Amino acid sequence: MKVKTLVCNCKGLDPFRFADMNTLAFEIESELDVAYAAVHPQLCEQGGNAVLEDVLRSAQDDPDTYVMVCACAEETQKKLFKKALHGSGIHEKHFVAVDARNTTNDGILERIRARLAELADPSKPRH
Ligand code: SF4
Fold it and tell me: Cα–Cα distance between 117 and 23 in angstroms, integer?
């Protein structure tokens, strides 16, 4: 299983003030089994969407690759990224939305860790 991780800083808005975006990608790569982690300031604007589409397309034909996005609420992400998701052709189960709001780097790492465990063992129920 290969997991490409994108983190959104939401322009540094209030719900993301607890996280240190200068160190988070490094911590994710160091502590968790992901292919890479990268931070973007606003994934739902034009440039951010282009980055997301590129990463989604890179996973399109690979049943072993997942794209994890740590950003706003899961349902909000699905709405904001609807066009990118449809355009990329990625299977919806290979897009993994993680709510990264209102927590520290350690909290985000825990949320990612939990989702990685679920991906590794889909028989486990979601938290
Ligand atoms: S994708 Fe979500 S977290 Fe990122 S800038 Fe847009 S609203 Fe904020």
Answer: 23
Residue 42: CB within 6 Å of ligand 1? Answer: yes
User: 53, 63 in Cβ contact below 8 A?
Assistant: no
Task: Spell out the per-residue pLDDT of the chain, length 127, in tens.
Answer: 999 999 999 999 999 999 999 999 999 999 999 999 999 999 999 999 999 999 999 998 899 999 999 999 999 999 999 999 999 989 999 999 999 999 999 999 999 999 999 999 988 766 5
Please say whether the structural domain 2-120 has been given the CATH code 3.40.50: yes
106 vs 42: CA distance, rounded Å: 21
Instruction: Give me 27's structure tokens.
Output: 């911590």
Indicate which atom in ligand 1 lies nearest the CA of residue 81: 1
The residue type found at 5 is T
CB of 71 sitting under 6 A from ligand 1: yes
pTM above 0.70, yes or no: yes
